[in-house]
Amino acid sequence: MSDLRDRAIQIYDAFTHEHRDRRTLLRQMAVLAGSVAAAETLIAGIAASPAAAAITQPDDKRLKTRKGAHILPDGKNINGYFAVRADLAHKAGAVMVIHENRGLNAHIEDITRRIALEGFLAFAPDFLSDQGGTPADENAARDLIAKVDYDSIVAEALGVIGMLKRIGGANGKVGTVGFCWGGGLVDRVAVAAGGALAAAVPYYGPAPEPAEAVKVKAAMLLHYAGKDTRVNSTGAPWAAALEAAGKDVQAYTYEGVDHAFNNDTSVERYNAPAATLAWQRTIAFFHAHLDT
């Protein structure tokens, strides 16, 4: 069963990250599982479920939240989700939360609220804003993500950093965290941002070329999944290059867990012990680098 599960996740990851069609996914899963019905059950367990319960609630009275357009320093609008503690009485560091290739969905909004509850100003931009915003269908969102201009997205992310430096209640220090596609974007934003970014936390994100490590100024906390060979083939050289360049970097590999182990909306991927430990490290890291 373990081998079947691992193979199923590999097939599903090829579907999500190599943009294969769903018909191919279903055919391969049916061969693996023995029937179309069993394949559908297997796919449902691996895929993120939009119906999964959130750890925090959208109407949590401890928080002030707002979803809508925000103005970047260059005058451009970007949609996003903002959260802050209602009782926050001091200037705080800000954290940009970067979504997976499913776009800005309920899970990412949940993570944004979790970060806000820890005492940060938290903002999750929708990097599909120019395409009309994140669609409800996650497959449609993935198709749109595959077509975005990556340089333009990095530029938008730098604009978000500029906005968060000056937003009301901010202390001027900005960090970022991202997952999967968003983890890869975190690394690239760290390369492009220079000293504007104080701290960066990519979760299992495909990494840049190691030669880019010398450009990073932010402190880096890297999270990788032990069974995620696709990402780890780039992550290990990236972590080594950051260390060789004398950067402030910590890298952790969580053995025996899959890509997207932090995503609690995916039954088959989520690993509570690894996710909890990575989250504790992430919050402590942000406090160390973003608090005044």
Could you walk me through the main structural features you see in this protein, from its secondary elements to its overall organization?
With 292 residues, the protein is α/β, with parallel strands linked by helices. The protein has two domains: 2-46, no CATH class; 63-290, Alpha/Beta hydrolase fold, catalytic domain (Rossmann fold, 3-Layer(aba) Sandwich), CATH 3.40.50. The protein has helices at 2-17, 22-33, 36-46, 106-117, 138-147, 150-166, 181-193, 229-244, 272-290; strands spanning 63-71, 77-85, 92-98, 121-125, 170-179, 199-203, 219-225, 249-254. An eight-stranded mixed beta sheet has the order 1-2-4-3-5-6-7-8, with helices on both faces. Helix 1 runs antiparallel to helix 2, helix 2 packs across helix 3 and helix 6 packs across helix 7 (181-193). The longest helix is centred in the C-terminal third of the chain and has 19 residues, at 272-290. The radius of gyration is 18 Å and the shape is globular. The mean pLDDT is 91.
